[in-house]
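Run: sequence + fe (ii) ion -> complex structure.
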Amino acid sequence: MNNRRTLLKSILAAVAVLLLPGRLSASDTLAPTPFLTAGPFYPRDPSGLPFLPARTTLPEPVTNDLTRNRRGEPALGQHILVSGRVMDITGRPLAGAVVEIWSVNARNIYLVEDGGASDPGFAGFGVTATDAEGRYSFRTIRPGGYDRYFGLIRRTAHIHVLVKLAGGEPFTTEMWFADEPRNSIDSFFRRVTDPGLQARMAVILNRSDGFDQAQFDLVLAPRYAGRAG
Ligand SMILES: [Fe+2]
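>> structure
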């Protein structure tokens, strides 16, 4: 009897999940992904650090594949596929969002720091747009963390992400890696204490279709979601 009741409960729970609407109700919203600074090494408009100047140097064409240069030469390091969805706080997909990423190369140097000399195969910067379901994807490398100023700035491994939607403010944040030992020494990482947000921002790589893949979803607060939000 008990078993039957348990089974019935499980079936009812499964049916309830199936009946859930695709969109959350207004009172049940998703926590927005935290805004984090673009930092001084954004390739389109780098500011650099004092004594560590940066230069604008964008290789063309810019695509969503950062793992090879225009001559087809491959980037050093572990190649990964990053994909995900951009949505508003109700879970509604945001189509037509411009998504940009940039990170250090496999030698932990930004493109704007050395013009790509330390790894000419790594594009350093990529751009794409979300489709009707709010989906985007990039091929890139898994970057390492870096120190600057003899360890005064200590960062864990991260990929910078910028999202732009018509009518919204530009949104910048970072993607992290759940198994990265340097997470514990990074002040940006440690500031995100909510376990759900941390799980969304610190990805776990899964091997699938010959690629190490990461899923990184972005939830945009209304001021960034633009006219669609
Ligand atoms: Fe950075």
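>> summary
The mean pLDDT is 89. The radius of gyration is 20 Å.
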